[in-house]
Amino acid sequence: MSNNQVGVIYQQIIADVVESSRVDFEEGGVDERVLEELRQGWQQKLSQLNVATFPWDPKPEPPAPVISNPPTLPSNTGNYQPMNMNTPPTGAQPQQPAQPMPQMNNGPRIKAEPGLENGGLNNMPQAPFQPPPQAVAGMTAEERAAANLAAAYGQRAAASIEQIQRSGPPAGQNSRPTPQQAQAYQQQMQQQQQMQQNARAQQSQQGQPQMSPEEYRARQAAYTREQAQRVQGLNGAQTDGAGDDIEDSIAVIKRLNSKGEEESMGRIEIDNLIRTRIEAMGQSMEGGGLMLPLKQATKAGKNRQRKVKSSSASGVGQHDGGDDDEDDDEKVKDEDLDEDAINSDLDDPDDGLNDDEDDDESMGHIMLCMYDKVQRVKNKWKCVMKDGVLTVNNKEYVFHKASGEYEW
Amino acid sequence: MATNGPSYYELYRRSSIGMALTDTLDDLISERRIEPQLAMKILANFDRSITEVLNEKVKARLTFKGHLDTYRFCDEVWTFLIKDVTFKMENSSQTVQADKVKIVSCNSKRPGDPQ
Protein backbone atom coordinates (compact mmCIF):
# COMPACT_ATOMS: atom_id res chain seq x y z
CA MET A 1 0.00 0.00 0.00
CA SER A 2 1.36 3.36 -0.93
CA ASN A 3 0.55 4.88 2.44
CA ASN A 4 3.34 2.81 3.99
CA GLN A 5 5.75 4.29 1.56
CA VAL A 6 4.94 7.84 2.53
CA GLY A 7 7.09 7.91 5.63
CA VAL A 8 10.16 6.62 3.85
CA ILE A 9 9.65 8.87 0.87
CA TYR A 10 9.14 11.93 3.01
CA GLN A 11 12.17 11.14 5.03
CA GLN A 12 14.21 10.99 1.88
CA ILE A 13 12.84 14.32 0.78
CA ILE A 14 13.64 15.89 4.12
CA ALA A 15 17.15 14.49 4.13
CA ASP A 16 17.66 15.62 0.57
CA VAL A 17 16.40 19.12 1.22
CA VAL A 18 18.48 19.45 4.37
CA GLU A 19 21.56 18.27 2.53
CA SER A 20 21.10 20.57 -0.41
CA SER A 21 20.26 23.49 1.84
CA ARG A 22 23.43 23.10 3.82
CA VAL A 23 25.33 25.06 1.21
CA ASP A 24 22.74 27.80 1.27
CA PHE A 25 23.00 27.98 5.03
CA GLU A 26 26.74 28.29 4.81
CA GLU A 27 26.49 30.97 2.19
CA GLY A 28 23.98 32.84 4.27
CA GLY A 29 26.23 32.56 7.31
CA VAL A 30 23.56 30.76 9.29
CA ASP A 31 24.54 28.29 11.94
CA GLU A 32 24.14 24.67 11.00
CA ARG A 33 22.21 24.10 14.18
CA VAL A 34 19.38 26.12 12.71
CA LEU A 35 19.31 23.69 9.83
CA GLU A 36 18.98 20.82 12.26
CA GLU A 37 16.27 22.69 14.03
CA LEU A 38 14.52 23.15 10.74
CA ARG A 39 14.64 19.44 10.17
CA GLN A 40 13.28 18.73 13.60
CA GLY A 41 10.51 21.25 13.29
CA TRP A 42 9.61 19.98 9.87
CA GLN A 43 9.39 16.39 11.03
CA GLN A 44 7.47 17.37 14.10
CA LYS A 45 4.93 19.35 12.12
CA LEU A 46 4.51 16.48 9.71
CA SER A 47 3.90 14.09 12.56
CA GLN A 48 1.30 16.43 13.98
CA LEU A 49 -0.60 16.29 10.73
CA ASN A 50 -0.88 12.59 11.34
CA VAL A 51 -1.21 11.77 7.67
CA ALA A 52 1.02 8.74 7.79
CA THR A 53 3.42 6.91 10.04
CA PHE A 54 6.91 8.26 9.79
CA PRO A 55 10.17 6.56 10.57
CA TRP A 56 10.94 9.14 13.19
CA ASP A 57 7.62 8.73 14.93
CA PRO A 58 7.91 5.57 17.02
CA LYS A 59 11.02 6.64 18.85
CA PRO A 60 11.23 9.76 20.98
CA GLU A 61 13.94 11.30 18.83
CA PRO A 62 14.38 10.51 15.16
CA PRO A 63 17.38 8.29 14.60
CA ALA A 64 16.77 8.78 10.89
CA PRO A 65 18.75 5.97 9.34
CA VAL A 66 18.79 7.47 5.88
CA ILE A 67 20.17 10.79 6.98
CA SER A 68 23.75 10.99 5.97
CA ASN A 69 25.24 13.23 8.63
CA PRO A 70 25.07 11.45 11.97
CA PRO A 71 27.71 13.66 13.64
CA THR A 72 25.30 16.55 13.95
CA LEU A 73 22.55 14.46 15.41
CA PRO A 74 23.48 14.67 19.10
CA SER A 75 22.91 18.38 19.04
CA ASN A 76 19.38 17.80 17.91
CA THR A 77 18.17 16.76 21.28
CA GLY A 78 19.25 20.01 22.80
CA ASN A 79 17.82 22.17 20.08
CA TYR A 80 14.64 20.28 19.94
CA GLN A 81 13.34 21.33 23.29
CA PRO A 82 12.50 24.99 22.63
CA MET A 83 10.36 24.12 19.67
CA ASN A 84 8.44 21.60 21.70
CA MET A 85 7.68 23.89 24.53
CA ASN A 86 6.34 26.69 22.40
CA THR A 87 8.08 29.28 24.46
CA PRO A 88 8.08 32.87 23.25
CA PRO A 89 10.61 33.23 20.48
CA THR A 90 13.73 34.99 21.65
CA GLY A 91 15.12 36.70 24.64
CA ALA A 92 11.90 36.62 26.56
CA GLN A 93 13.30 34.38 29.24
CA PRO A 94 12.66 36.08 32.52
CA GLN A 95 15.35 35.88 35.13
CA GLN A 96 13.00 34.32 37.61
CA PRO A 97 10.82 32.10 35.45
CA ALA A 98 8.67 30.96 38.32
CA GLN A 99 7.65 34.51 39.14
CA PRO A 100 4.99 35.21 36.49
CA MET A 101 3.27 31.89 36.87
CA PRO A 102 1.16 32.46 39.99
CA GLN A 103 0.10 35.81 38.62
CA MET A 104 -1.07 34.19 35.49
CA ASN A 105 -3.17 31.81 37.50
CA ASN A 106 -4.71 34.63 39.49
CA GLY A 107 -5.57 36.82 36.58
CA PRO A 108 -8.61 36.16 34.46
CA ARG A 109 -6.86 37.15 31.23
CA ILE A 110 -4.21 34.55 31.10
CA LYS A 111 -3.48 35.00 27.43
CA ALA A 112 -2.59 38.62 27.58
CA GLU A 113 -0.39 38.48 30.58
CA PRO A 114 2.56 36.23 29.90
CA GLY A 115 3.83 38.34 27.06
CA LEU A 116 3.28 41.52 28.97
CA GLU A 117 4.88 40.16 32.07
CA ASN A 118 7.85 38.88 30.19
CA GLY A 119 8.23 42.07 28.29
CA GLY A 120 7.93 44.01 31.50
CA LEU A 121 10.47 41.93 33.25
CA ASN A 122 12.81 42.30 30.40
CA ASN A 123 12.58 46.01 30.22
CA MET A 124 12.68 46.61 33.91
CA PRO A 125 16.11 47.03 35.35
CA GLN A 126 15.16 45.63 38.72
CA ALA A 127 12.63 43.13 39.91
CA PRO A 128 10.75 45.50 42.29
CA PHE A 129 9.62 47.54 39.31
CA GLN A 130 7.19 44.79 38.54
CA PRO A 131 3.61 45.77 39.24
CA PRO A 132 2.20 44.11 42.34
CA PRO A 133 0.34 40.85 41.67
CA GLN A 134 -2.97 42.03 43.05
CA ALA A 135 -2.88 45.04 40.83
CA VAL A 136 -2.06 42.91 37.85
CA ALA A 137 -4.98 40.65 38.46
CA GLY A 138 -7.46 43.51 38.71
CA MET A 139 -5.94 45.81 36.14
CA THR A 140 -7.87 47.06 33.22
CA ALA A 141 -6.27 47.01 29.84
CA GLU A 142 -5.55 50.71 30.09
CA GLU A 143 -3.81 50.31 33.39
CA ARG A 144 -1.79 47.46 32.09
CA ALA A 145 -0.73 49.58 29.20
CA ALA A 146 0.25 52.25 31.65
CA ALA A 147 2.23 49.74 33.62
CA ASN A 148 3.99 48.69 30.51
CA LEU A 149 4.80 52.26 29.63
CA ALA A 150 6.21 52.82 33.04
CA ALA A 151 8.28 49.75 32.55
CA ALA A 152 9.59 51.13 29.32
CA TYR A 153 10.34 54.50 30.87
CA GLY A 154 11.49 53.03 34.12
CA GLN A 155 14.12 55.66 34.79
CA ARG A 156 11.61 58.45 34.74
CA ALA A 157 9.28 56.66 37.05
CA ALA A 158 12.16 56.13 39.41
CA ALA A 159 10.79 58.40 42.12
CA SER A 160 7.64 56.47 42.72
CA ILE A 161 9.39 53.20 42.28
CA GLU A 162 11.89 54.17 44.89
CA GLN A 163 9.06 54.98 47.19
CA ILE A 164 7.53 51.62 46.65
CA GLN A 165 10.86 50.00 47.12
CA ARG A 166 11.54 51.71 50.39
CA SER A 167 8.24 50.94 52.03
CA GLY A 168 7.96 47.42 50.70
CA PRO A 169 9.42 44.34 52.35
CA PRO A 170 13.16 44.11 51.98
CA ALA A 171 12.88 40.82 50.11
CA GLY A 172 13.46 42.64 46.84
CA GLN A 173 11.85 40.39 44.29
CA ASN A 174 8.62 39.75 46.06
CA SER A 175 7.98 43.22 47.40
CA ARG A 176 4.27 43.89 47.49
CA PRO A 177 3.31 47.50 48.03
CA THR A 178 0.11 48.39 49.77
CA PRO A 179 -2.88 49.19 47.59
CA GLN A 180 -2.47 52.92 48.16
CA GLN A 181 1.06 52.82 46.95
CA ALA A 182 0.07 50.79 44.00
CA GLN A 183 -2.56 53.36 43.21
CA ALA A 184 -0.08 56.17 43.40
CA TYR A 185 2.20 54.24 41.19
CA GLN A 186 -0.52 53.72 38.63
CA GLN A 187 -1.53 57.33 38.81
CA GLN A 188 1.93 58.41 37.97
CA MET A 189 2.01 55.98 35.10
CA GLN A 190 -1.24 57.30 33.78
CA GLN A 191 0.05 60.82 34.03
CA GLN A 192 3.02 59.86 31.99
CA GLN A 193 0.82 58.21 29.48
CA GLN A 194 -1.33 61.26 29.20
CA MET A 195 1.65 63.45 28.59
CA GLN A 196 2.78 61.18 25.86
CA GLN A 197 -0.63 61.14 24.32
CA ASN A 198 -0.65 64.91 24.28
CA ALA A 199 2.71 64.98 22.63
CA ARG A 200 1.54 62.49 20.10
CA ALA A 201 -1.57 64.47 19.34
CA GLN A 202 0.56 67.49 18.68
CA GLN A 203 2.76 65.50 16.44
CA SER A 204 -0.12 64.23 14.40
CA GLN A 205 -1.48 67.73 14.13
CA GLN A 206 1.73 68.81 12.67
CA GLY A 207 1.83 65.89 10.32
CA GLN A 208 -1.39 66.70 8.55
CA PRO A 209 -0.51 67.83 5.10
CA GLN A 210 -3.74 69.47 4.12
CA MET A 211 -5.16 72.40 5.99
CA SER A 212 -6.40 75.77 5.04
CA PRO A 213 -3.92 78.62 5.45
CA GLU A 214 -5.96 80.25 8.24
CA GLU A 215 -6.27 77.04 10.12
CA TYR A 216 -2.65 76.42 9.59
CA ARG A 217 -1.61 79.79 10.87
CA ALA A 218 -3.85 79.56 13.91
CA ARG A 219 -2.43 76.19 14.77
CA GLN A 220 1.01 77.40 14.18
CA ALA A 221 0.53 80.29 16.56
CA ALA A 222 -0.92 78.04 19.23
CA TYR A 223 1.92 75.73 18.63
CA THR A 224 4.59 78.30 19.09
CA ARG A 225 2.99 79.38 22.32
CA GLU A 226 2.83 75.87 23.60
CA GLN A 227 6.34 75.30 22.62
CA ALA A 228 7.54 78.37 24.41
CA GLN A 229 5.70 77.29 27.53
CA ARG A 230 7.25 73.95 27.38
CA VAL A 231 10.70 75.33 27.04
CA GLN A 232 10.20 77.65 29.99
CA GLY A 233 8.23 75.68 32.51
CA LEU A 234 7.82 72.10 31.66
CA ASN A 235 11.28 71.29 30.62
CA GLY A 236 11.79 67.59 30.41
CA ALA A 237 8.12 66.80 30.80
CA GLN A 238 7.97 65.36 27.37
CA THR A 239 9.23 61.85 27.50
CA ASP A 240 9.17 60.65 23.94
CA GLY A 241 11.52 63.15 22.42
CA ALA A 242 8.99 64.37 19.89
CA GLY A 243 8.79 67.74 18.29
CA ASP A 244 12.47 68.07 17.58
CA ASP A 245 11.97 70.08 14.45
CA ILE A 246 9.86 72.58 16.37
CA GLU A 247 12.74 73.04 18.71
CA ASP A 248 14.72 74.00 15.66
CA SER A 249 12.23 76.60 14.61
CA ILE A 250 12.25 78.10 18.08
CA ALA A 251 15.94 78.38 17.75
CA VAL A 252 15.36 80.23 14.51
CA ILE A 253 13.15 82.71 16.29
CA LYS A 254 15.74 83.29 18.94
CA ARG A 255 18.48 83.72 16.47
CA LEU A 256 16.54 86.14 14.43
CA ASN A 257 15.70 88.12 17.50
CA SER A 258 19.23 88.25 18.65
CA LYS A 259 20.23 89.56 15.28
CA GLY A 260 17.84 92.37 15.83
CA GLU A 261 15.66 91.63 12.89
CA GLU A 262 12.02 92.53 12.87
CA GLU A 263 9.85 90.11 14.79
CA SER A 264 7.15 89.92 12.11
CA MET A 265 9.65 89.24 9.38
CA GLY A 266 11.13 86.43 11.31
CA ARG A 267 7.75 84.90 11.95
CA ILE A 268 6.83 84.92 8.30
CA GLU A 269 10.08 83.33 7.45
CA ILE A 270 9.57 80.72 10.10
CA ASP A 271 6.07 80.13 8.90
CA ASN A 272 7.36 79.57 5.42
CA LEU A 273 10.05 77.30 6.68
CA ILE A 274 7.61 75.23 8.66
CA ARG A 275 5.21 75.17 5.82
CA THR A 276 7.72 73.82 3.38
CA ARG A 277 8.79 71.34 5.96
CA ILE A 278 5.24 70.15 6.51
CA GLU A 279 4.66 69.93 2.82
CA ALA A 280 7.80 67.90 2.40
CA MET A 281 6.72 65.65 5.21
CA GLY A 282 3.33 65.21 3.69
CA GLN A 283 4.89 64.42 0.38
CA SER A 284 7.27 61.89 1.79
CA MET A 285 4.43 60.23 3.63
CA GLU A 286 2.44 60.16 0.50
CA GLY A 287 5.27 58.83 -1.58
CA GLY A 288 5.41 61.88 -3.81
CA GLY A 289 1.71 61.75 -4.43
CA LEU A 290 1.90 58.23 -5.74
CA MET A 291 1.31 55.93 -2.83
CA LEU A 292 -1.90 57.24 -1.41
CA PRO A 293 -4.00 57.37 -4.56
CA LEU A 294 -2.73 54.02 -5.72
CA LYS A 295 -3.65 52.45 -2.44
CA GLN A 296 -7.07 53.95 -2.54
CA ALA A 297 -7.51 52.96 -6.13
CA THR A 298 -6.57 49.33 -5.66
CA LYS A 299 -8.66 49.02 -2.56
CA ALA A 300 -11.66 50.52 -4.21
CA GLY A 301 -11.14 48.31 -7.21
CA LYS A 302 -10.91 45.15 -5.18
CA ASN A 303 -13.92 45.99 -3.13
CA ARG A 304 -16.03 46.73 -6.11
CA GLN A 305 -14.99 43.47 -7.62
CA ARG A 306 -16.01 41.65 -4.52
CA LYS A 307 -19.37 43.38 -4.45
CA VAL A 308 -20.08 42.43 -8.01
CA LYS A 309 -19.29 38.84 -7.26
CA SER A 310 -21.43 38.61 -4.21
CA SER A 311 -24.37 40.32 -5.80
CA SER A 312 -24.44 38.13 -8.85
CA ALA A 313 -23.38 34.60 -8.14
CA SER A 314 -22.60 33.77 -11.72
CA GLY A 315 -20.64 36.93 -12.34
CA VAL A 316 -17.15 36.42 -13.62
CA GLY A 317 -14.89 38.64 -11.58
CA GLN A 318 -13.12 41.44 -13.27
CA HIS A 319 -9.45 40.87 -12.69
CA ASP A 320 -7.92 44.04 -13.97
CA GLY A 321 -9.42 46.26 -11.32
CA GLY A 322 -10.40 48.75 -13.99
CA ASP A 323 -12.54 51.87 -14.04
CA ASP A 324 -11.12 53.08 -10.80
CA ASP A 325 -11.74 56.72 -11.48
CA GLU A 326 -15.48 56.44 -11.69
CA ASP A 327 -16.54 56.58 -8.11
CA ASP A 328 -14.06 58.61 -6.20
CA ASP A 329 -16.65 59.48 -3.62
CA GLU A 330 -17.11 55.85 -2.72
CA LYS A 331 -13.51 55.28 -2.04
CA VAL A 332 -13.44 56.56 1.48
CA LYS A 333 -16.47 54.55 2.39
CA ASP A 334 -15.06 51.44 0.80
CA GLU A 335 -11.85 51.80 2.63
CA ASP A 336 -13.64 52.06 5.91
CA LEU A 337 -15.70 49.02 5.13
CA ASP A 338 -12.76 46.83 4.41
CA GLU A 339 -10.00 47.69 6.78
CA ASP A 340 -8.56 44.23 7.08
CA ALA A 341 -8.10 43.74 3.36
CA ILE A 342 -4.41 43.43 2.63
CA ASN A 343 -4.63 44.07 -1.06
CA SER A 344 -3.54 40.60 -1.86
CA ASP A 345 -5.02 38.35 -4.47
CA LEU A 346 -5.89 36.10 -1.59
CA ASP A 347 -8.46 38.68 -0.57
CA ASP A 348 -10.53 37.80 -3.54
CA PRO A 349 -12.80 34.86 -3.17
CA ASP A 350 -12.03 32.25 -5.75
CA ASP A 351 -14.82 31.48 -8.06
CA GLY A 352 -16.70 28.25 -8.59
CA LEU A 353 -14.17 25.57 -7.98
CA ASN A 354 -13.05 26.57 -4.56
CA ASP A 355 -16.40 27.58 -3.21
CA ASP A 356 -17.27 24.53 -1.19
CA GLU A 357 -13.83 23.56 -0.14
CA ASP A 358 -12.03 24.02 3.06
CA ASP A 359 -8.60 25.47 2.89
CA ASP A 360 -7.21 23.40 5.66
CA GLU A 361 -4.92 21.11 3.81
CA SER A 362 -4.83 18.39 6.40
CA MET A 363 -8.56 17.99 6.24
CA GLY A 364 -9.07 18.76 2.58
CA HIS A 365 -8.94 16.04 0.01
CA ILE A 366 -6.42 17.02 -2.56
CA MET A 367 -4.25 15.36 -5.13
CA LEU A 368 -1.18 17.18 -6.33
CA CYS A 369 0.37 15.58 -9.33
CA MET A 370 1.42 15.95 -12.92
CA TYR A 371 -0.61 14.86 -15.85
CA ASP A 372 0.59 12.75 -18.70
CA LYS A 373 -2.68 12.62 -20.55
CA VAL A 374 -6.06 14.20 -20.20
CA GLN A 375 -8.63 12.95 -22.67
CA ARG A 376 -12.29 13.56 -23.04
CA VAL A 377 -14.91 11.91 -25.20
CA LYS A 378 -18.29 13.53 -24.76
CA ASN A 379 -18.69 13.63 -21.03
CA LYS A 380 -16.24 10.83 -20.28
CA TRP A 381 -12.86 11.87 -19.05
CA LYS A 382 -9.75 9.75 -18.84
CA CYS A 383 -6.63 11.00 -17.21
CA VAL A 384 -3.23 9.59 -16.56
CA MET A 385 -1.45 11.23 -13.70
CA LYS A 386 2.03 10.69 -12.39
CA ASP A 387 4.24 11.53 -9.46
CA GLY A 388 1.49 12.56 -7.17
CA VAL A 389 0.73 13.14 -3.55
CA LEU A 390 -2.79 12.38 -2.51
CA THR A 391 -4.32 13.46 0.77
CA VAL A 392 -7.65 11.87 1.41
CA ASN A 393 -9.51 11.07 4.62
CA ASN A 394 -6.61 12.48 6.57
CA LYS A 395 -4.23 9.94 5.11
CA GLU A 396 -1.51 10.58 2.65
CA TYR A 397 -0.57 8.49 -0.35
CA VAL A 398 2.12 8.82 -2.92
CA PHE A 399 1.92 7.30 -6.34
CA HIS A 400 3.99 6.97 -9.42
CA LYS A 401 1.06 6.62 -11.75
CA ALA A 402 -2.64 7.07 -11.35
CA SER A 403 -5.31 6.65 -13.95
CA GLY A 404 -8.69 8.13 -13.45
CA GLU A 405 -12.00 7.81 -15.21
CA TYR A 406 -14.87 10.04 -14.45
CA GLU A 407 -17.88 11.49 -16.18
CA TRP A 408 -19.02 15.03 -16.00
CA MET B 1 17.20 12.56 -14.92
CA ALA B 2 17.06 16.21 -15.86
CA THR B 3 18.90 17.27 -12.74
CA ASN B 4 20.00 20.47 -14.42
CA GLY B 5 16.48 21.60 -15.05
CA PRO B 6 16.12 25.30 -14.48
CA SER B 7 12.90 25.23 -12.56
CA TYR B 8 10.49 22.95 -10.86
CA TYR B 9 6.85 23.23 -10.06
CA GLU B 10 5.96 24.79 -6.76
CA LEU B 11 2.87 22.64 -6.81
CA TYR B 12 3.95 20.30 -4.05
CA ARG B 13 4.34 23.08 -1.53
CA ARG B 14 0.64 22.62 -0.88
CA SER B 15 1.12 19.05 0.20
CA SER B 16 1.35 18.21 3.87
CA ILE B 17 5.11 17.89 3.74
CA GLY B 18 5.35 21.19 1.92
CA MET B 19 3.06 22.91 4.39
CA ALA B 20 5.03 21.51 7.29
CA LEU B 21 8.20 22.89 5.76
CA THR B 22 6.66 26.29 5.08
CA ASP B 23 5.33 26.50 8.61
CA THR B 24 8.69 25.63 10.05
CA LEU B 25 10.41 28.19 7.86
CA ASP B 26 7.85 30.78 8.87
CA ASP B 27 8.59 30.08 12.50
CA LEU B 28 12.31 30.43 11.96
CA ILE B 29 11.83 33.65 10.05
CA SER B 30 9.60 35.16 12.69
CA GLU B 31 12.16 34.19 15.29
CA ARG B 32 14.70 35.96 13.10
CA ARG B 33 16.81 32.88 12.92
CA ILE B 34 16.96 32.88 9.13
CA GLU B 35 16.42 35.37 6.35
CA PRO B 36 13.42 35.06 4.05
CA GLN B 37 15.78 34.71 1.11
CA LEU B 38 17.26 31.61 2.62
CA ALA B 39 13.78 30.22 3.14
CA MET B 40 13.07 30.78 -0.55
CA LYS B 41 16.17 28.82 -1.45
CA ILE B 42 15.14 26.00 0.82
CA LEU B 43 11.71 25.92 -0.74
CA ALA B 44 13.31 25.79 -4.17
CA ASN B 45 15.40 22.87 -2.97
CA PHE B 46 12.24 21.26 -1.76
CA ASP B 47 10.56 21.74 -5.14
CA ARG B 48 13.41 19.97 -6.81
CA SER B 49 13.80 17.27 -4.20
CA ILE B 50 10.18 16.20 -3.99
CA THR B 51 9.87 16.11 -7.75
CA GLU B 52 12.92 13.91 -8.07
CA VAL B 53 12.10 11.61 -5.20
CA LEU B 54 8.53 11.11 -6.32
CA ASN B 55 9.78 10.36 -9.77
CA GLU B 56 12.57 8.03 -8.85
CA LYS B 57 11.53 6.26 -5.69
CA VAL B 58 7.80 5.86 -5.85
CA LYS B 59 6.48 2.88 -7.73
CA ALA B 60 2.94 2.64 -6.44
CA ARG B 61 0.05 2.92 -8.83
CA LEU B 62 -3.54 3.65 -8.26
CA THR B 63 -6.74 4.11 -10.15
CA PHE B 64 -9.66 6.26 -9.31
CA LYS B 65 -13.21 6.76 -10.49
CA GLY B 66 -15.79 9.33 -9.75
CA HIS B 67 -18.04 12.06 -11.00
CA LEU B 68 -16.38 15.09 -12.38
CA ASP B 69 -17.95 18.16 -10.88
CA THR B 70 -15.75 20.94 -12.17
CA TYR B 71 -12.84 21.08 -14.52
CA ARG B 72 -10.53 23.86 -15.44
CA PHE B 73 -7.53 24.14 -17.64
CA CYS B 74 -5.57 27.29 -17.16
CA ASP B 75 -1.90 28.03 -17.75
CA GLU B 76 -1.19 24.40 -18.46
CA VAL B 77 -2.67 23.40 -15.13
CA TRP B 78 -5.60 21.05 -14.94
CA THR B 79 -7.83 21.38 -11.95
CA PHE B 80 -10.56 18.85 -11.33
CA LEU B 81 -13.10 18.65 -8.61
CA ILE B 82 -14.33 15.09 -8.47
CA LYS B 83 -17.20 13.94 -6.33
CA ASP B 84 -17.94 10.50 -4.93
CA VAL B 85 -14.52 9.34 -5.79
CA THR B 86 -13.08 5.91 -5.16
CA PHE B 87 -9.35 5.30 -5.14
CA LYS B 88 -8.07 1.83 -5.68
CA MET B 89 -4.52 1.08 -4.69
CA GLU B 90 -2.75 -1.40 -6.85
CA ASN B 91 -1.26 -4.49 -5.24
CA SER B 92 -3.77 -4.29 -2.49
CA SER B 93 -7.47 -4.69 -2.32
CA GLN B 94 -7.73 -1.51 -0.33
CA THR B 95 -10.01 1.19 -1.59
CA VAL B 96 -10.40 4.67 -0.28
CA GLN B 97 -13.54 6.67 -0.72
CA ALA B 98 -14.16 10.34 -0.43
CA ASP B 99 -17.13 12.49 -1.27
CA LYS B 100 -14.91 14.90 -3.09
CA VAL B 101 -11.34 15.42 -4.03
CA LYS B 102 -9.58 18.23 -5.75
CA ILE B 103 -6.90 17.44 -8.24
CA VAL B 104 -4.31 19.99 -9.17
CA SER B 105 -2.13 18.77 -11.93
CA CYS B 106 0.71 20.33 -13.87
CA ASN B 107 2.00 19.28 -17.22
CA SER B 108 4.56 16.54 -16.89
CA LYS B 109 6.16 17.54 -20.16
CA ARG B 110 7.86 20.66 -19.17
CA PRO B 111 11.44 21.61 -19.81
CA GLY B 112 13.35 21.20 -16.62
CA ASP B 113 11.11 18.55 -15.27
CA PRO B 114 12.12 14.95 -15.03
CA GLN B 115 10.36 12.92 -17.61
Automatic annotation (TrEMBL), chain A:
Any one of the GO CC terms: transcription factor TFIIA complex
One Pfam short name: TFIIA
One GO BP: transcription initiation at RNA polymerase II promoter
Region: Disordered, residue numbers: 84-137, 160-244, 298-359
Signal peptide (residue range): none
Key word Calcium present: no
Biased composition annotated in UniProt, kind: Low complexity: 87-108, 180-211
Record's compositionally biased regions (Acidic residues): 322-359
KW Nucleus (keyword) present: yes
Sequence ranges of Polar residues compositional bias: 162-179, 229-238
Keyword entries, A-Z: Nucleus, Transcription
InterPro entries: TFIIA_asu/bsu, TFIIA_b-brl
Membrane spanning stretches: none
Localization (cell): Nucleus
Family of the protein in this entry: Belongs to the TFIIA subunit 1 family.
Annotated protein name in UniProt: Transcription initiation factor IIA large subunit
From TrEMBL, chain B:
Any single Gene Ontology cellular-component annotation: transcription factor TFIIA complex
Signal peptide: none
CDD domains per record: TFIIA_gamma_C, TFIIA_gamma_N
Subcellular location: Nucleus
Domain Transcription initiation factor IIA gamma subunit C-terminal: 65-108
Keyword hit for Mitochondrion: no
Keywords (A to Z) from UniProt: Initiation factor, Nucleus, Protein biosynthesis, Transcription, Transcription regulation
GO terms (BP aspect): transcription initiation at RNA polymerase II promoter
Reported function: TFIIA is a component of the transcription machinery of RNA polymerase II and plays an important role in transcriptional activation. TFIIA in a complex with TBP mediates transcriptional activity.
Listed name of the protein: Transcription initiation factor IIA subunit 2
Organism in which the protein naturally occurs: Coleophoma cylindrospora
Taxonomic lineage: Eukaryota, Fungi, Dikarya, Ascomycota, Pezizomycotina
